[in-house]
Design brief:
9 strands; mainly beta
């Protein structure tokens, strides 16, 4: 099971990511992230085999609010702020990661799913 500290920031929505369906296995850049999240988005977090699942709503003004439930039944509240910094999604969740900013790289694995990395370490998955 993944710890709450490894919980990714984002994930479940209604709009397609701004890359073609054949563009799987592509790291989203600043323009991709901006287009995807500019109007706000609700994202699915984790999923089967990830140790947790949940949703978070990201607003266009840089706020995030949601929750996830671990496979063991623990509910984790996710609340704070987010921003795009270069080619990374950066988030500061109040009750996770000691309240410190974590910047993630999102790698598209299908038209509506990304694997989430902090440096070279995969820390989660997001979908919309």
């Amino acid at each position: 099971m993944r710890s709450a500290l490894a919980m990714p920031a984002v994930l479940f929505a209604l709009v397609m990511v701004p890359v073609s369906a054949g563009a799987a296995d592509k790291t989203l850049n600043e323009a991709d992230l901006t287009t995807l999240l500019a109007g706000g988005k609700t994202l699915g977090l984790g999923g089967k085999g990830m140790g947790y699942s949940g949703t978070i709503t990201l607003t266009a003004d840089g706020k995030g609010d949601g929750s996830a439930k671990t496979d063991g039944g623990t509910v984790i509240t996710i609340n704070g702020t987010w921003r795009i910094k270069g080619d990374r999604f950066c988030r500061t969740w109040k009750d996770l990661d000691d309240g410190k900013e974590v910047c993630e790289t999102w790698r598209l694995t299908s038209p509506n799913h990304v694997d989430v990395y902090n440096g070279k370490k995969k820390i989660g998955a997001n979908s919309w």
